[in-house]
Write a structure and sequence with these properties.
Radius of gyration: 18 Å
Order of helices and strands: HHHHEEHHEEEEEEHHHHH
Number of strands: 8
Distance between the termini: 7 Å
Mean pLDDT: 85
Strand content: 15-25%
Helix content: 40-55%
Length: 301
Amino acid sequence: MNTLHTPLASSASLARRPVAGLLIAAALALSPLAALAQQAADGGGAALRAKVDALKPQLARNAFKRPLTIESSESPERLSGDVYALVDHPFNQVSGALREPAAWCQVLMLHLNIKHCSVKGGGAALAVAAGRKFDQPLSDAQQIDFAYSVAKADANYLNVRLSAATGPLSTRDYNIVLEATPADNGKTALHMSYAYAYGTAARLAMKGYLATVGSDKVGFTSKDGGAYIGGVRGVVERNTMRYYLAIDSYLDAPASGQLEQRLGAWFDATEQYAQQLHEVDRNDYLTMKRHEFQRLQSGAS
């Protein structure tokens, strides 16, 4: 892939476009949460198992119809989302699949807004292009360069990090951490943490997005009275869920010849939560992603 260095659009122009919130949420990065991520790695599988054990009631009975729970938080300059889940795959398979950087390109590109991904630096980095939720030239996308590392990998615990110091507009300090550890009955406990910070330009762009095309979009957490949260927490919850479902779809079909299965599984999984996640028709999604993956394989721009 040719490295993209497209100029960032102005905050005023992005505020008028649906891409604002989605671009802001399309990256990963090194952040002030790095210290917390290191603590998680140091705690290892025991800490993750304890957290999952504490969440057993929520994992057993929830609106997701799968053993999954999502949490989110918002501060004046930072958003974060966390998914805890159990997957029907043994730990050795999960760890073997998700410790490879090339696998993360396959995962990330299932997301509507990720247009391209290539492994750089001998596996130490991922060059990712983020764009709109329709087919577009790579020259119109934004490149974000992520550091990739395996913080810990042993027989009972995996901790993978993807990070980038900056993103579109004034977003920064993106951080994704994926943890996995063996669970009962041959399953694996997963935790995916996704967070980023943002400044004035991103805040203005997001405000414009949420006041227009994003005004009716919601997240997964219920407020008092039963309604779902909206706003920026809704944005981070939707994208946290999209990335988690991409991980889950990849684990179900990790082979190179199983792309069609992954694409269909991701779209069908998102449609289970159509109120939050529906954006395009199935055929439009499949057509777009087939072209993007073909472009990835051919090295075309």
